[in-house]
Amino acid sequence: MELATKYSPEAVENKWYQYWMEHKLFHSTPDHRPAYTIVIPPPNVTGVLHMGHMLNNSIQDILVRRARQQGFNACWVPGTDHASIATEAKVVGRLASQGIQKHDLTREAFLEHAWDWTREHGGIILEQLKRLGASCDWDRTAFTMDEERSQSVLDVFVDLYRKGLIYRGVRVVNWDPKAQTALSDEEVIYQEQQGKLYYLRYFVEGEADKYVVVATTRPETIMGDTAVCINPNDERYHFLRGKKLIVPLVGRAVPVIEDEYVDIEFGTGCLKVTPAHDINDYVLGEKHQLQTIDIFNNDGSLNEHGGAYAGMDRFDVRKKIETDLEVAGLMEKVEAYTNKVGHSERTFVPIEPKLSMQWFLKMEGLAKPALDAVMNDEIRLHPTKFKNTYRHWMENIKDWCISRQLWWGHRIPAYYLPDGSFVVASTEAEALRLAQEKDASLTASDLRQESDCLDTWFSSWLWPITVFAPALSKGNEELNYYYPTSDLVTGPDILFFWVARMIMAGYEFQGKKPFENVYLTGIVRDNQGRKMSKTLGNSPDPLDLIDKYGADGVRMGLIMSAPAGNDILFDESLCEQGRNFCNKIWNAFRLVKGWTADVAQGEQPEASRLASYWMRQVLNKAAGELNDLFAKYRISEALTLVYKLIRDDFSSSYLELIKPAYGTPIDATTCQEALDFFDEILRILHPFMPFITEELWQNLAERSEGESIMNAQQRPAAPADEAFLQRFASAQEIITTVRSLRTSKNLSPREALVLEAAPSFPTELDEVLVKMAGLSMIDRSGVRSEGAVSFVIGTDEFAVPMAAYIDVEEELKKLRADLEYQQKFLAGVAKKLSNESFVSKAPEAVIALERKKQSDAESRIATLEQSIRQLEAQAK
Questions:
Q1: Is residue 214 over pLDDT 90?
Q2: What's phi and psi for 590, nearest 5 deg?
Q3: Which of 59, 95, 471, 502 is deepest in the core (most CB within 10 A)?
Q4: Percent of the chain with pLDDT over 90
């Protein structure tokens, strides 16, 4: 097939993706091969492809494609998450644009709209991933709220409840006034904000001339105050013992309580206690049996306990009450104050600590095996620096608030009876049976199911299990084959949200870990270090990038800049570099395929034989290094290695060395070796750049229908001839130096030069040196020509006669400058080696290295001095 003169991604990518899909090349079923399994971090059905998805899924695809080529039965399971809060917000917004309010609909009617929205938008991001080349087993696409996954969620809830791990109770929770639901601690993001610190006067009951000052950042909550707390050791306030204080503006008397929780040195030493709206105050309230007064409605406005402020938004009240306190003479002073305010991760509004009846899951017992697994490296985090973060979270774990006041999600399987009690069951029929055990007269109409839904993470923590079998299943063929999965690729921001909880679920429900390794990517940032976001306008549309540079170019640009666990400073120029690399590979392929093989040529030229032997050793070494880099999840470094292998070793060195003279054929042996090497290189490159490698591999030889490079095995690593590689590297240095000399004198490449070498210099690579350096001969007579320019490679001295081409004075100037530098360098090394303290304490390897530096410098100085003498004699 005739190849176009330039690589065109748009002509290649869709063609091969359809080919892969039509031949079910991504599909996996259990067989005799070892399994390699990845489950996708399910993107929200609200989402579209962004740069973080691009990075994460490129890495997953690299790992999966490489596993296929290594003989594994690779299975990459795709799917989406129902994203309770985010999706419900989208649906509520769309209904509002149609003039429909959520509270005007029944739950069932609202859920119809939610399902419609999910069917319209839920698959968009998965289709976009196909543009990237994602080789997921699309036949296995799962959704956290499909029938199979949903049943597992309900069964797990019932199981945990029966184990005594799930309970219902009134607690202070993080309340999102916009979404009007509780949040877990992990769903709260703390942001530094400039605010005010208000110093309020609380007068002593019955003593009009006495008051204490209490500092607060939230004067709007004083309507919920039920005590003022002092430290019993604070002598300043002993006069308050047994007394009551009047809450400013409210006029209600509250007791003074004493507790060492109050820091004497902080603020005024007096603490207003609002048990319904602060977790620490709630603990104090429980301890001292204080009244709790909830002053907020679910939307963040004040309720009837807010008095004159009832119905006003909390922040409007803060502005109004500041003025009212000033007017009433109850404000001591106001100061500027910087503090951290918790915001909802989903809606970005400040959260409101609020007393609420919720469902909780006890976490301490679940956390223990999950902590041990990571600390003992049964599950390995890459990079390992995240182990400390993980340990801190798990050792300080709190019970998980798993209920959400939403309609979109898995409805909690608890059913309330007329007497206020409840039963927990995964089906209504089972719930009725349990209810009738309490009261045989009850019917289905007497049961009322809990209206709250479960936290989104309560379904996704089961994901590695439920994509293969029911969560409480003790195994089926698929679960036994694919679980535990191999690698998980995700961001460190959900290390606790999702990763830790999956580990807990794995040990609790399957008795084993859910995955072997966790590869934690960084955050994609722009070249100024800012996190990419739509708000800043610094995040390119990934599909636009693919249109511009091709999927392979974008993948390369992302991965080259993505060391594990570190943030990615993304620069679009890297994608351009990726596209240019595609063109370089394309041109190299066209060059090789364009050669005419001369089968009658006979013996292979020595330079070509050496080149092929060298290329074989380079590939052997690269295979071993790649195995090591992938084992350490240093994928960015692995791609850089492959990039240099192709650009420098194969294209610039090997092909140039074997390239026949223009218009002449190449010998058949070398031609076939070049094609074989190209095949091997395409296989190595394929996981990183799947489209161009498939196109070229298919053009490399006749292929049968359904055959693909993705199933072409990579050559196993083999020992490399390191000594030969070192000798060849020295030859390349000689070639580079001679070429530099030629360039510096503006000599034509056709101007043959002589290389003068020591009589002992090996002849093994002469043919390579002659061809690549443009030499007429290599002179080993040991006699240096007058006007020859000398240079040293390693410890070997060489010279090139340049008398006819050089400016003697200019050359002497350069040599003397180099000599001065080498002498200073030698003096520095000698000083270090003469330091007894250094020599006695430094490792033997370090001392040996310094002595080698000394020896090399002395050799270079001798060569330079000889060259200077020769030129000085010539100048006379």
A1: yes
A2: -60, -35
A3: 502
A4: 75
Burial group, residue 185, by CB count within 10 angstroms (0-12, 13-18, 19+): middle
pLDDT tens digits, 235-259: 999 999 999 999 999 999 999 999 9
* Alpha carbon 418 to chain centroid, angstroms: 50
- Alpha-helical (H) ranges within 422-550 are 428-438, 457-460, 463-466, 477-482, 501-505, 542-549
The 3-state DSSP class for residue 408 equals: coil
Residue 535: what pLDDT?
A: 61
Q: What pLDDT score was predicted for residue 802?
A: 83
DSSP codes joined into one string, 182-209: EE-GGGEEEEEEEEEEEEEEEEETTEEE
Q: Sign of torsion, CA 115 116 119 125?
A: negative
- What integer pLDDT is reported at residue 565 of this predicted model? 64
Give the pTM.
0.83
How many Cα atoms are found within 13 Å in the side-chain-facing hemisphere of 114? 23
**pLDDT, mean of residues 636-661:** 95
Give, as one character, the DSSP assignment of residue 667: E
Q: What SS3 state is found at 473?
A: coil
Do the Cβ atoms of 581 and 549 come closer than 8 Å? Answer: no
Burial class of residue 207 in the structure, from the number of CB atoms within 10 Å of its CB (0-12 exposed, 13-18 middle, 19+ buried): exposed
Give 3-state DSSP helix, strand, coil % of the chain, rounded to 5.
Answer: 50, 20, 35
With vertex at residue 615, the alpha carbon angle to CA 613 and CA 620, rounded to the nearest 5 degrees, is 95
- Tell me the mean pLDDT in the region 469-494: 93
Q: How far apart are CA 426 and CA 155, in angstroms?
A: 6
Kind of pairing, strands 352-361 and 166-176? Answer: antiparallel
Token pair for 510: 């399957």
Look at residues 249, 224, 415 and name the one whose alpha carbon lies nearest to residue 320. 249
Q: Helix, strand, or coil here: 38?
A: strand
Name 568's bridge partners.
524
DSSP, residue by residue, 827-848: HHHHHHHT-HHHHHHS-HHHHH
Q: What angle do CA 126, 12, 582 make, to 5 degrees?
A: 100
| CB-based contacts of 559, cutoff 8 Å, min separation 6 | 55, 58, 59, 62, 635, 636, 639, 688
Integer CA distances (angstroms), 801 to 456, 782, 786, 804, in order: 77, 13, 7, 8
Tally Cβ neighbours within 10 Å of residue 342.
Answer: 17
Report the C-alpha gap between 841 and 830 in whole angstroms.
Answer: 16
> Would you place residue 1 in the very low, low, confident or very high pLDDT band (cuts 50, 70, 90)?
low
Q: Which residues contact 113 (CB under 8 A, 6 or more apart)?
A: 91, 94, 95, 105
* Residue 322: predicted pLDDT: 95
Query: Residue 719: what residue type?
Result: P
DSSP label at residue 715: P
The arrangement of strands across the sheet holding 788-793 comes to 775-779, 753-757, 796-801, 788-793
Strand (E) or helix (H) holding 568: strand 568-569
Cα angle value 32/33/37 (rounded, 5°): 125
* φ/ψ (deg, to 5) at 296: -110, 140
Q: Is there a contact between 53 and 13 (Cβ–Cβ < 8 Å)?
A: no
Look up residue 680 and give its two tokens: 């091997």
Please, how many CA atoms are within 13 Å of residue 697, restricted to the half-sphere of its CB?
23
**Which DSSP category does 81 fall into?**
B
Long-range contacts of 423-428 (CB under 8 A, 24+ apart): 424/157, 424/158, 424/161, 424/162, 424/166, 425/158, 426/151, 426/154, 426/155, 426/157, 426/158, 427/154
Residue 140 is given by DSSP the state: G
Phi-psi region of 252 (alpha: psi -120 to 50; beta: other; left: phi over 0): beta
Angle at 545 between CA 694 and CA 571, to 5 degrees: 110
CB 401 within 8 A of CB 360: yes
pLDDT value at residue 534: 61
5-9, 75-79, 559-563, 713-717: least confidently modelled range: 559-563
Record the tokens describing residue 808, joined without a space. 């003697």
